Amino acid sequence: MLIASATSKPIVGRLSPWTLAACGIAALVGVPLLAVLASWREPAVDVWAHLWRTQLAELTMNTLLLVAGVGAGTLTLGAGLAWLVVAYRFPGRALFEWALILPLAVPAYVIGFAFLGLFDFAGPVQSALRQWFGDAARLPELRSGPGVAVMMTLVFYPYVYLLARTAFREQGLATLETARSLGRSRPRAFFAVVLPMARPSLVAGASLAMMEALADFGTVSIFGYRTLTEAVYRVWNGMFDRMAATQLASLLLAFALALLLLERALRGRRRFTQSQRRGPGVDPVSLRGWPAAAATVVCGLVLVLAFVLPIGQLLLWAADVIRSWSLSPDFVAWLGATFLLAGAAAVMICVLGLTVAYARRLHPSPSVRFAAQWSSMGYALPGAVIAVGVLAPIAWLDGILGVVAEWALGRRLGLLLTGSACAVLLAYAVRFLTIGFQTLDASLGRIPSSFDEAARSLGVSVRGTLRRIHLPLMRGSVLTAFILVWVEVMKELPATLLLRPLGMKTLAIEVWERTSESMWADAAIPALAIVAVGFFPLFLASRLTSDAWRR
Amino acid sequence: MSLVVLSEVTKRFHPDRPPAVDRLSLAIARGEILALLGPSGSGKTTILRLIAGFESPDDGRIMLGGRLVVEAGHERMIAVPPEQRQVGIVFQDYALFPHLTVEANVAFGLHALTRAVRGERIREILHLVGLADLGRRYPHELSGGQQQRVALARALAPAPALLLLDEPFSNLDADLRAQMRDEVERVLRSTGTTAIFVTHDQEEAFTIADRVGVLDRGRLEQLGAPETIYHAPATRFVAEFVGAADFLPGIVTPEGIVTEIGTFANVQARAPGERVRVMLRPDDVTFVAGHDGEAIILRRDFRGSETLYCLGLPSGDRVHSSQPSSAAFTVGTRVHLEVPAIHVVTFPAE
Predict the structure, then answer these.
(1) ipTM at complex level
(2) Total domains present in chain B
(3) B 324-343 residues with CB below 8 A of A?
(4) Domains of chain A by range and CATH?
């Protein structure tokens, strides 16, 4: 009655739909986590007893060793290579500088099976060795803890390499020159100043690598190396004991959270020390003679082992398959299914991510900020954990739906949600929402808030502003977010394997099925298709970083 | 009738800090141009944002065109959202939409019109701001002054009841600033637009505005015509913030206010015996050279058309005097002060 105009609506004093949506999305992300924890209400005592007697100690030890090995390996390799290309000039440096991130485009299980095909007892390398040096000649067993750790180090070192390279460059010349003016030689300055200053980035990179190693399912299962992630799947599929699998998953969850906390603790308070970058970057020293040759050989060796050899092997196998006309006729169907599933997930995640990011822009209240943080948490959860966490609530919902349908329609409908893509899409949303959110949030943050206010003052509503101002300005970032999520979903294995709709087959699943039967050549073409798609985000990332560098 | 009425409006951003806007009341007539002048942090931009609807007051109410748009202190706050207030805004950074052409920027607020009427209106408004030929350009293809004109055109296109301008000239260089100031005033007057603009530049406020409101820490210190603000400041803060001034101690006697440099009329009828400070603007003080002069030139700042002299008095107090640069006096010259008592403003001595 106080308001003269009938069109006036109160805007304050009630909850905005954006706030509600953001909180709803955060709750969705929390569901699998709660489901995993809730499994402890009825512990599967006999399965645990069995596991305890037989494998639990082995599984835990294996997992710990693998994660620690990958952490140490990626740190050494990633930071070492980064310093080499930032601080020295040697033949091939310009090529190595970007080519050393290439292994990131290839899923670990693809490089893994290519390696097995190459270096296995029956593979070309060992066969040749036996021919030359007699039957006693053999390589160390690849299907072992150290073998898997070395393999994963070769795949995951680019995480450390990328972050370390940026950190080293940001420190600039001044840091190094200060240290040298105080009497340190260049190599000693590296250990005394450069490395400690880059610690936050190094820790972040190594944590990413270790999380990947912890969550990895494809590689360890091909290599027959028993870890917790692999055990979740085995207990689920082999013993059909979902409760026990879920409880194993909670153990895995504890590992993941411990890793996350460790990262936070190690990163310390120095997160922002390198934010104000001034002055020129490190001036690379030209190497000559033996040191130059050594630098080139080291970089080249890593690149050949981690990328050229496995991809070359895949191409050879693919050529064989094509020559013998034995490409499966279903290949196109798999390709279609993969693109469809990944596309649907990417659209959904972009919408969810944008909703959360926009809610935070409109109403940066504590609850919305918490929702935004909480919904970014899924990246730390291994796919296997999310998968078992999603299935329990979905199966429960299916049960309710079934009862309702039977009562309403008088007949059984079967498993509506569990049998459809709902479950796997939900799992993807939980796992990859952070990619969509971070990308879109950063892009939204670059749009001045005066744009919103200008639009509102010109009579356009909140939703109209999003449609007419923000989305057109964010076009590039929306595409980037879409591609990033799309590629991640295409590569994802454990959640897809556990939750895919009945009968659906994607490229990743085909690769896994063929390789678990050691039919390496048959897996080559689907694997190459995944690799080809994986180059998209790498291209995007290199464009973004090079833009940032060429000021 | 007043177009804009703010009654006892208070806005706090942090519970433990003083409010950004403190029980502020203000009424603006239709067609008036009001400048809000104050140092940074005085709450002037917050007032604009409260009127536009981007912030909600913690107390008080705001009426626009006789319609209550926001009233705090109810159990459920009632507020009209910004898009329904018919308030145009020119932003400090212009906030031109970079993905839209000049025409599309101007058309942005005209969604209610038919295509033909819209086209006509765009032409008309671009002509008004002198950008008739640049409609197809994108904002980044325009100079700063042109961008400013587009921002003005876009805000005026829907014929808002009220236009708010937030430091509109701060992004322009000095030459362009003076030119755009005249331009904007011309456009506002010719369209009869009611406008409030925020600035920390007194010259800008004085040249454009009918009335100037001086703000300090969220409070309205004085609201009046530019001449009143300058010559009859209501508070010491206004006197110091608007133009330079010296404050010379004096004592009120039946004959007038006696100071070191002479006696002034007691126009404010202060009680005899009261200790006061007399405000002296540099343009109120002149002097002639003389060997037995009571003051001495301590410092001389050449400013182009005028020169500012700092004069030392026997007591150690200092007064400033601005003189045409045609005459030049050297530092150390003894002078007699002459203060024609046209505007005598005194403040109680602390």
Answers:
(1) 0.81
(2) 2
(3) none
(4) 44-276+292-323 (1.10.3720.10), 331-504 (1.10.3720.10)
